[in-house]
Amino acid sequence: MQVITDLRQLAPLQDFRKLLAVRLTSQTADGVFQAGLATLFFFSPEHASTATGVATSFAVLLLPFTIVGPWAGVLLDRWRRRQVLLVGNLVRVALTLAVAAVLATSGVGPAVYVLTLVTLSVNRFLLAALSASLPRVVDGELLLTANSVTPTLGTAAAGVGAGIGIGVGLLTGKGLAHDVGSLVVAAALMGTASALAGRLGRERLGPDELSDAAQLRAALGTLARGLVEGARYLVARGTPARALAVMTVHRFLYGVVFVASLLISRNLLSDPHDAAAGLRTFGTVLGATVVGFALAVVLTPTITPRIGPHAWIVVCLGIAAVSQAVVVVTYALWALVTAAAALGLAAQGAKIAVDTIVQRDTADEFRGRAFALYDVLYNAGFVGAAALAAFTLPDTGYSRGLFAALTAGYVATAAAYGWASRRAPRPSAV
To answer: Longest Cα pair distance anywhere in the chain, in angstroms?
Structure first.
């Protein structure tokens, strides 16, 4: 199988292995951290039982990421990315332990939400740094394989982390004890990720040119201009901007499906008063999504060399349309699980292709800003989806008309991107 051959070619790349170790450890910590707080935000009896409640929770968690993203771009193009990974994980250790301390001493309050939002914002900054760093350790045709392997293994690592968090909960009990125990384990893993980042050379991940303190202050002071320059460059190149646009739409539609699936799992397929049963049902749906992610890592590097990343994105959008058409017919658990697996394949497969297009067609001096803008659009799409869900979804999560509209939306997006992708990247004078 082609993917096995490509993985064997990636294995000898020592710095790729080191960067991958940082990603896997860091995202395992993310999974433990999020498992420790999942019941608090979404599956406690008194929280997030309505469409508005779920949408508000997602908006609160994701909206700050769209604020962090622009700053991340400026810094990632001017700071050593290796240092960002090393120091950023240490910052997360301090923040995570602070959340645990506040929970243990004062319980849930505004401070917990604020510290959690800051911690998750740092996490997005680190993921942007990892994506911007990848072309520095892998190039050529292997970059596509690396893009399929690293995000998918990262997602799997987060799933393993969630399992660890649940296991810690079984050992430490329920409620705040569960959350505190998971957070302490997450902090330990974040510290390990920082240590692993230290194995890479200080300058190995770029950028090639650094800024002194005065230059950095000037860059931060002209943030808007820098972002405009980055956006102008991407638009001038053509292909990266179109790839980001299609991923934003994809993320928006996926976000509506995600919120609907959570509500269906909790309020329609389970007793609304039994949050644990809803969590188990939703866990089954998420498990199917992970299976779809795994299929994407196998199929994308096998199919894309034959048809190209643009055509693969169109195929993925078509698969997503079919997945939602299934739910139009019925909301039974088998249909929801089948749709989740198909949509997981479509979402991850398209993301791998978009990552590759943005990395391949963006110059290194703009790559940090490109992925920061990617982060902004990625999360803004989900926030917009949450807002739409709050106004259009019933509390049960199921609306046949809405799922029909999602199907049509995926079909229209596939057609539009298929037409636009016929144009090659343009040289940019920016």
So the answer is: 60
Per-residue pLDDT tens over the stretch 86-111: 999 999 999 999 988 988 888 767 78
Domain count, the chain: 1
Predicted TM-score (pTM) of this structure: 0.69
CB 248 within 8 A of CB 394: no
Residue 312 lies in a domain: yes
What is 53-74 written as a DSSP string?
HHHHHHHHHHHHHHHHHHHHHH
CA-based R_g, the chain, Å: 21
Rounded distance, CA 355 to CA 147, Å?
Answer: 7
Q: Which residue has the higher pLDDT, 176 or 122?
A: 122
Spatial contact of 341 and 322, defined as CB atoms under 8 Å apart: no
Looking at the domain assignment, is residue 429 inside a domain?
A: no
168, 172, 175, 181: CA torsion to nearest 10: -60
Summarize pLDDT for 203-254 with one digit per residue, the tens.
888 777 665 666 666 666 666 676 777 788 888 888 888 999 999 999 999 9
Please determine, for residue 370, whether its predicted confidence score (pLDDT) is greater than 50. Answer: yes
Residues spanned by the domain of 40:
2-420
**Measured CA distances, 320 to 338, 384, 406 (Å):** 11, 19, 9
CATH number for position 401: 1.20.1250.20
CB 132 within 8 A of CB 371: yes
Query: How far, in Å, CA of 337 to CA of 331, rounded?
Result: 10
